């Protein structure tokens, strides 16, 4: 039994008894006390958080969102094909890429500055007026919305195109008149005279007397010339070996065919030679762009590193090209063996023409 010690043994007292023994409290009372303490601690933490949040809101002010600068005119200009092609070209130029990457943040800071925000009403009015002016200009000049650099080049070459077209027509007409009025009558008279001396003097089997006598010499030369230039210039029509009154006529046809095959090739070679600096500049530009793409950014330091890498790569390419196209290959003469063949053909032709002359003398 628990023993209670009271201060006064007699009389009723309102003071609660003091537990002096080692009796333990009940579990239900302990749980309720712990729950009450946890609830009080949670309320205190929430109150402290609310106070801190209120203090932060009083001292920290969220900046207002800046209004965008009106750029309707700029967007309108960007819609033109000429401007789009220009931008595409500049995006492939390394210097323009570097300049754009380094000036873009600076321009953005200017557009978002307080001065521009203050002048926003005026800027908006000017932008609207400029955009309206562009719309009016498009109504007067509709080709602004469709004009490209290719069309501009075609229009610039119109005088040359018309001159070439009508000049060719005039030349063809002149040659046609000369053929009908001069060549054909003369040729017919020659054929009549040839028929006469074939019947009366010497039968040349329909071939000209003097020119056909040179066939033994000109035939091997014609065959040699044709076989070689066809190898050099394979694109073109072939000249048949039959159908000509003499080998001299065939020689004329071969010369015309040679120029018809060689002129386009020579023109292309001249154009390619003249365009070599441009082609190399385009190649160097591509190499520099690839080197810049490998850099983490287009800042001045990274751009300098990319330029150094591109220059070293171009130097390696130049060294390899010089090794593969050395002076010995450039100085070799591909026509050395051809010269001997020409001499042999000429000698055979001279022997053949001597035999032909002796044959004609025997008939006479």
From TrEMBL:
Please give the name of this protein: Uncharacterized protein
Q: Which domain of life is it from?
A: Eukaryota
Q: One GO BP annotation here? A: ascospore formation
Q: Where is this region: Disordered?
A: 1-26
Task: Provide ranges: composition bias, Low complexity.
Answer: 16-26
Q: Which organism is it from?
A: Zygosaccharomyces rouxii
Q: Which Pfam families match?
A: Perilipin_2
